[in-house]
Design goal:
- This protein is of the alpha/beta class and 437 residues long.
- The chain folds into 3 domains: 121 residues, Rossmann fold (3-Layer(aba) Sandwich); 229 residues, tm_1862 like domain (pyruvate-formate lyase- activating enzyme, Alpha-Beta Horseshoe), CATH 3.80.30; 59 residues, OB fold (Dihydrolipoamide Acetyltransferase, E2P).
- It has 13 helices and 19 strands.
- The strands form 5 sheets. A 6-stranded parallel sheet has the order 2-1-3-4-5-6, sandwiched between helices. Strands 15-16-17-19-18 form a 5-stranded mixed β-barrel.
- Bound molecules: S-adenosyl-L-homocysteine, iron/sulfur cluster and FE3-S4 cluster.
- The site of FE3-S4 cluster has 13 residues, from helix 1, helix 3 and helix 6.
- S-adenosyl-L-homocysteine (SAH) binds next to strand 13.
Length: 437
């Protein structure tokens, strides 16, 4: 039997794409193995969002270069594949398959070509209208499932490779999404995460014509589903109806990830984000007005070309104003093909590093204070794991906070996948701790 090994880099979209690729390969008669050494076919599903991410795949390929002669086949999928295309064959001549995510529907036929001995196979079309729908998805987690609702990105943020690597926006038909949600509920999944680079611009291609808020409300009504999350939201397309939907149904998790990138309107304009600081804060105000106490998280880039000390201070003041529950922050990384390459005012690496540290230190303090307010409360968590070293279970609240807790009488009996109540006794900047009640 043919064997394969797959390693995945990058975002949740990539993680879920890999689940679909794995399902597709198994349906073609392949068996998954845990080490590249044991595999006939080695696949890397790659990320290109920052330079460091891109370098990872080339160092992996370098590592196994000599194996190629011994009948091992190498495939590069995902965002670096789409970005670099046939140049990958030059940089790593032992690679046989290069395929971007917009061409995954063609994977079965490409695998056949490889098996027939084709030396080089590519799937690099970006203008496809197809979505990667497959009945063969092999999910990693038995309780929480991803569902892709929209692929590609039609925005043009000046720093970002995604519009070049994932093709044009394609929304998936609502009946197909609903069918998958119902099937997952039947199979015992209780949490669903709807995925897209910009879920807010979801537009049902079928005659029902649902928008994203409508889709959210419908998915939350599926019998057996206890939590519905979604990611990512572009602020420009984030409408009040989404908050209304969250208010109306507690199954919709009270957590919204709303990437801001910068607190300075001047920088936002240079980034081509299509909103001002004030417009962003208006959306935050809708969320803060919700009776459900919605957790808010964000992404921030420091050191975008032309970002001055004053601009950066506006990002710091935004943190004070919004009081985010968590942030993901990055140093600006110049990327191929992107409009930001043409901007002047590059910020030195050292200064980027300093700004990142200042930002993260500030956020640490905010998170610690927010978490301390939760000491003494009881939180409902979905149990995700067990930490042998500390003897604690690991759970996650609807707001996406991690809670480590002890459980009397569990006697090593697994409670993973269950929903439990935890009394919070301690708070740290990144997690809470307590005991099951
Ligand atoms: N579609 C999502 C973003 C996906 S990329 C959205 O619009 O929110 C995830 C994050 O990576 C972005 O929000 C941004 O903060 C960061 N990022 C993207 N390109 C980057 C670059 N060139 N350098 C540094 N960080 C970047
Ligand atoms: Fe990149 Fe902007 Fe599209 Fe997000 S919305 S994927 S940051 S171009
Ligand atoms: Fe990376 Fe592509 Fe996702 S660049 S972040 S894997 S969309």
């Amino acid at each position: 039997m043919k064997t394969f090994y797959i390693e995945t880099f990058g975002c949740q979209m990539n993680v879920h794409d890999s689940e679909k690729v794995v399902g597709t390969l198994i349906a073609q008669g392949y068996r998954q193995v845990p080490k590249p050494e044991e595999a006939d076919l080695v696949l890397y599903n790659t990320c290109s969002i920052r330079d460091k991410a891109e370098q990872k795949v080339f160092s992996r390929l370098q590592q196994f270069k000599r194996e190629a002669g011994k009948g091992k086949t190498f495939a590069v999928l995902g965002c670096v594949a789409q970005q670099e295309g046939e140049r990958i064959f030059e940089r790593a001549p032992h690679v046989s398959l290069v395929c971007g995510s917009a061409s995954y529907t063609r994977l079965p036929e490409m695998l056949v070509q490889l098996e027939a001995g084709a030396r080089r196979v590519t799937g690099l079309d970006r203008d496809t209208q197809e979505t990667f729908e497959t009945p063969f998805t092999r999910r990693d987690n038995p309780h929480r499932a991803y569902i892709t609702i929209i692929e590609g990105c039609d925005k043009s943020c000046a720093y970002c490779v995604v519009p070049f690597t994932r093709g044009r926006e394609r929304s998936r038909a609502s009946d197909s999404i609903m069918e998958e949600a119902r099937r997952l509920a039947d199979e015992g999944y209780t949490e669903i995460q709807l995925l897209g680079q910009n879920v807010n611009s979801y537009r049902d291609p079928s005659s029902r014509g649902w928008d994203f808020a409508t889709l959210l409300a419908r998915v939350a009504e599926v019998e057996g589903i206890r939590r519905v999350r979604f990611t990512t939201s572009h602020p420009r397309d984030f409408v009040k109806e989404i908050v209304d939907a969250i208010d109306a149904n507690p199954v919709l998790a009270n957590h919204v990830h709303l990437p801001v990138q910068s607190g300075s309107t001047r920088v936002l304009e240079r980034m081509q984000r299509q909103y001002t600081r004030e417009e962003y804060l208006e959306r935050i105000a809708w969320l803060k007005a919700s009776p459900r106490n919605v957790a808010i998280t964000t992404d921030i880039i420091v050191g975008f070309p032309g970002e001055t000390e004053e601009d950066f201070e506006q990002t710091l003041s935004l943190l004070d104003e919004v009081q985010y529950d968590a942030i993901f922050s990055f140093k600006y990384s110049p990327r191929p093909n992107t409009p930001a390459l043409a901007l002047d005012g590059q910020v030195p690496e050292e200064e980027k590093g300093r700004r990142l540290m200042v930002l993260q230190e500030k956020q640490r303090g905010i998170q610690l204070r927010l978490h301390e307010q939760l000491v003494g409360t009881t939180q409902e968590v979905l149990v995700e794991g067990y930490n042998r070293a500390t003897g604690q279970w690991i759970g996650r609240t609807a707001e996406n906070r991690v809670v480590n807790f002890t459980l009397e009488g569990s006697n090593g009996h697994s409670v993973i996948g269950q929903y439990m109540h935890v009394h919070v006794t301690r708070a740290g900047p990144n997690s809470l701790a307590g005991y099951g009640v």
